[in-house]
Amino acid sequence: QVQLVESGGGLVQPGGSLRLSCAASGIMLRLHSMGWDRQAPGKQRELVATMESTGNTDYADSVKGRFTISRDNAKNTVYLEMNSLKPEDTAVYYCRGSLSRDYWGQGTQVTVSS
Hints:
Order of helices and strands: EEEEEEEEEEE
Structural class: mainly beta
């Protein structure tokens, strides 16, 4: 059974940083595509970042240069380092794991506000 548990969200001022973590069980991160999606109020869920099993990464244009996805295979954990945060980054962030289908965690709230 795949379980993804996110942590690290919170309230941060514009220009600040946060690091999200996603602890995975039932899936070996180094063998599968992992990523982060987000959903802002009243908007559709959107892809933020993806890391393939090869280590290749991809980012939404809106976060390129500011966000970095990484993983720790020993801890079976994937991270999202978020810098230069903007109010429009406010959303619930979901960890995503892809096997025969996509799985998501329960989400963690990120609020960027002064």
